Amino acid sequence: MPPEPDNLRSCNVSNHLQRMAEIHPHKRAVVYPAAHDKYGRVAYSHLTFQQLDRESDCYAHGLENAGITQGTRTVLMVKPSIEFFVLTFAIFKVGAVPVVVDPGMGISRMLRCLEESRSQAFIGIPVAHALRKFRPKYFKTVKTCITVGRRWSWRGLALKDIRRIPWKPYNIAETGQNDMAAILFTTGSTGPAKGVVYTHGTFDAQIRHIKSHFNITSDEIDLPTFPLFALFDPALGMTAIIPDMDPTKPGSVNPEKIIEPIMNQGVTNMFASPALLNRVGRYCKNKGLTLPSLKRVISAGAPVSPSNIERFALTLCDGIEIHTPYGATEAMPVISIGSNEILSETAELSKKGFGICVGRPVCDLKVRIIEITDNQIEKWSDAIIISDGEIGEITVSGDPVTRQYFRNPRADAFSKIKEGNKTWHRMGDLGWIDKKGRIWFCGRKNQRVITKNGFMFTIPCEAIFNNHPMVFRSALVGVGSPLDQKPVICIELEHDRKRKRKKLIKKELLELAKSSVLTKNIEIILFYKAFPVDIRHNSKIFREKLALWAEKHVN
């Protein structure tokens, strides 16, 4: 008998939760900091895998009765909480499609994303529903509304109204590998936010790759400081400890609220953006703290500087690594490397302008470097692949790679390349491959500076200036004619008190520039108090904003 086509093969991400409920029914699945006692100690609430599975069954029955069924696009705007987990898996069980947008991107951009999703249902906290009520034109397609919390003046159901008890098993929707599972919007850090279509097969592949590559076992406890990554935990069999933090502001997190659950809950795995890693690492170094329970740290969302890695590594036991996987909303994880290799080998090369080494492809993913172009590439051809050692655009292909955006053919045309039944995703990032098969990240394609002498790439150039002890970070931008830009380096200093020495620091930075072939043509240095960064990880520099600012300050 021939194998079933992928689109017919049964695959639903919630099956992973059901399986874990059978294997580890009494193990904690989700742990939430619910309150503090009179001594200030954190009081936690939790659901076991069996409880999470059964609660999501109860909500799945209610969602179906409310009209949210297979294929219903459903906006989900709920804070990280136990309800967030229960509702997400209930939505998966009925075969509906959660639509997830970062609230930190700003109201106007968020509203545009929600309008583009053409969602038929809306589940959210009261503040989210208030936005829906006062900006109704963006929600014309919404027919079913459920409030997580108190309903105010709007119609619809409250969350308590849809919980169907006593519990009875819910028959999970028969969804296929290629059936839409979710729409996750990018932050729009370097362009308009786009809705990325995740299929059940995409999620399934990601779970398999994460578990295999990072050697994750079911006896682990995770501290996911990014809410979407938390959803992988029940599927991986890990206990998720929800941190007491604002997930939209990881760069200003209270380090004590990260250290407390690590120490008191025995956290073995932590995901952290580079900004959060930097903040907690500095705090631990100043206090002389170590985090002995951690057996793995994963940091992603932006390039992680070697100094950041080296500092946080001081908190870990010998042999424990910080992994810095590379990927995007459209494809993750793609490439990965551990801190041992970074600190022993690639860090020194990064300081010299080689780029940031992000490692080798994960599992069976294919990575190719193609020639730099801003044009569409309709069909794949090996002729566009460039030689190892040359800088080009990073492209990826494999099961965890998404195949399309939601109703956005223009984005598909510029980001996807077809090769038969296979799809290559253009990451929009520049890099090169070394003789060991490692990929080195050199910056975003649309942030390269185009001069009459050729391209200048952000990460390699910035590394030269970041070697100065007073520089916290730098940003290369271009001003002037789009085809003959003048390179400018913006500098964010390490300490405010050093700002009085700007004249001397500027002189030293110009000398650094002359010392490297990469930066010898940079003659303009500007100081900026605090760089604008992305809202998701607080780590990616908004060089576009800095470029507009620099344009006004260059004589």
Name a few traits of the molecule:
single chain, 555 residues, alpha/beta, Rossmann fold, GMP Synthetase, Chain A, domain 3, 8-stranded antiparallel beta sheet, 17 helices, 27 strands
| Helical coverage, percent range | 25-40%
Shape: globular
Average pLDDT metric: 94
The portion of residues forming beta strands comes to 25-35%
Output the CATH topology of the domain at 14-175.
Rossmann fold
Low-confidence stretches: none
Major beta-sheet overview: 8 strands, antiparallel
Question: How big is the Rg?
Answer: 24 Å
- The CATH class assignment of the domain at 14-175 is Alpha Beta
- Would you count the extended β strands for me? 27
How would you describe the oligomerization state of the chains in this entry? Answer: single chain
> Distance between the terminal alpha carbons, to the nearest Å?
73 Å
Q: What structural category characterises the helix and strand content? A: alpha/beta
Short description:
The protein has 17 helices and 27 strands. With 555 residues, the chain is of the alpha/beta class. The strands form 5 sheets. Strands 15, 16, 17, 18, 19, 20, 21 and 22 form an 8-stranded antiparallel sheet that branches. It has a 7-stranded mixed sheet with strand order 2-1-11-10-12-13-14. It has a 7-stranded mixed sheet with strand order 7-6-5-3-4-8-9, sandwiched between helices.
